[in-house]
């Protein structure tokens, strides 16, 4: 049984959330807490495997509590945060401090049924998560060697990630120069959170990073992040690539879906693409990465040791979709090496 502690200042939320989570046969809610001080005592007494954490609480804010928890008593934490610009920024900081994942708390009347199934899946993934050191805050762009790359106009770099992916994507993009090829990214993340995530990456990376809009060109030096609740596909018109946002059903319980993006890259870019699948739960992206490889693209998967959750890369590797497996810290360099040695098909 996965033992869960629910931390939220609202008695209604604690009750409803606990009831929904407890419906899963493999999960037990061992306790609840109205603030971090109560949570601290219950962690010591109850030994939970996973904590769900609201970030806006009395007596001590959630970020301060999370920082202390990661330092003195590290446990997998899933943040349950409001779907507001402020809530999104705070949740991203929580991920940097070591939280495993984030779930958006609906505004207005609380309808936990909207997030219950997603939260249960994330609890299961979090219970198996590997811990990593919290990322150091950075206030400015990281300088990256601007190695000249030839013929990047017709190349596409496609990246997919889920649980643990915000920091993995940050690591990869911070290792790429402004001359990197046009990049398209799917990170499983709630609606409204992706704009804050793109803005934060834009402040840290040499590439321009922004939330994608339909019609945006996939151009060298630009990384486009799929907005939450929208699938993103690659389109080609002559020599130019662009993206289109669309609705449609969830794929692997996700929208945006990595598979939707990767399959479109396989069709449109064929051998002019490089696909990278990073940490995440489930199988989203595995079949799409295989399609990319079969279309002539180069493909990389993050290795198990550096993943927070190895699900997505493991499934891709099992299918034979990944030509190479590399630790997170080496993926940026490997991307650059592939491009510089012209291992991709000539555009």
Please outline the helices and strands:
Elements: E1 2-7, H1 11-21, E2 27-33, H2 36-46, E3 50-53, H3 62-72, E4 77-82, H4 85-97, E5 101-105, H5 113-126, E6 156-161, H6 165-174, E7 182-187, H7 193-204, E8 208-211, E9 222-225, E10 231-237, E11 240-246, H8 258-269, E12 273-277, H9 286-294, E13 298-302, H10 311-318, E14 324-326, H11 328-340
Parallel strand pairs: 1-2, 1-3, 3-4, 4-5, 6-7, 6-12, 7-9, 8-9, 12-13, 13-14
Antiparallel strand pairs: 10-11
Give a written overview of the molecule:
- This protein is an alpha/beta fold and 347 residues long.
- Helix 4 (85-97) packs across helix 7 (193-204) and helix 9 (286-294) packs across helix 10 (311-318).
- The radius of gyration is 20 Å and the shape is elongated.
- Strands 8-9-7-6-12-13-14 form a seven-stranded parallel beta sheet, sandwiched between helices. Strands 2-1-3-4-5 form a five-stranded parallel beta sheet, sandwiched between helices. A two-stranded antiparallel sheet has the order 10-11.
- The protein has eleven helices and 14 strands.
- Helix content is 36%, strand content 22%.
- The model is unreliable at 136-140 and 343-347 (pLDDT under 50).
- The protein has two domains: 2-126, Response regulator (Rossmann fold, 3-Layer(aba) Sandwich), CATH 3.40.50.2300; 156-340, Rossmann fold (3-Layer(aba) Sandwich), CATH 3.40.50.180.
């Amino acid at each position: 049984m996965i033992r869960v502690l629910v931390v939220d200042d609202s008695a209604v939320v604690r009750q409803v959330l606990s009831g929904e989570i407890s419906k899963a046969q493999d999960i037990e809610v061992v306790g609840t807490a109205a603030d971090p001080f109560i949570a601290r005592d219950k962690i010591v007494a109850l030994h939970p495997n996973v904590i769900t954490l609201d970030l806006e609480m009395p007596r001590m804010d959630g970020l301060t509590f999370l920082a202390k928890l990661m330092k003195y008593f590290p446990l997998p934490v899933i943040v349950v945060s409001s779907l507001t610009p402020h809530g999104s920024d705070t949740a991203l900081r929580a991920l940097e401090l070591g939280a495993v994942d984030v779930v958006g708390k609906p505004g207005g009347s609380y309808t936990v049924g909207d997030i219950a199934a997603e939260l249960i899946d994330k609890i299961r993934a979090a219970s198996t998560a590997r811990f990593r050191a919290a990322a150091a805050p950075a206030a400015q762009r990281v300088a990256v060697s601007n190695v000249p790359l030839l013929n990047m106009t017709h190349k596409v770099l496609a990246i997919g990630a889920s649980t643990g992916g915000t920091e993995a994507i940050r690591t990869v993009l911070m290792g790429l120069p402004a001359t990197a090829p046009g990049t398209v990214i799917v990170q499983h993340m709630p609606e409204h959170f992706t704009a804050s995530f793109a803005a934060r990456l834009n402040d840290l990376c040499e590439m321009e990073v922004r939330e994608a809009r339909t019609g945006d060109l996939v151009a060298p030096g630009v990384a486009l992040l799929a907005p939450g609740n929208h699938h993103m596909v690659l389109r080609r018109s002559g020599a130019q690539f662009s993206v289109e946002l669309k609705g449609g059903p969830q794929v692997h319980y996700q929208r945006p879906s990595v598979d939707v993006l990767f399959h479109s890259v396989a069709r449109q870019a064929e051998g002019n693409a490089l696909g990278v699948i990073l940490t995440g739960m489930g199988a989203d992206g595995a079949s799409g990465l295989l399609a990319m490889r079969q279309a002539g693209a180069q493909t990389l998967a993050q290795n198990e040791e550096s993943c927070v959750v190895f699900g997505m890369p493991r499934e891709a590797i099992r299918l034979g979709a990944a030509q190479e497996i590399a630790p997170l810290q080496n993926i940026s360099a490997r991307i650059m090496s592939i491009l510089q040695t012209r291992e991709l098909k000539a555009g």
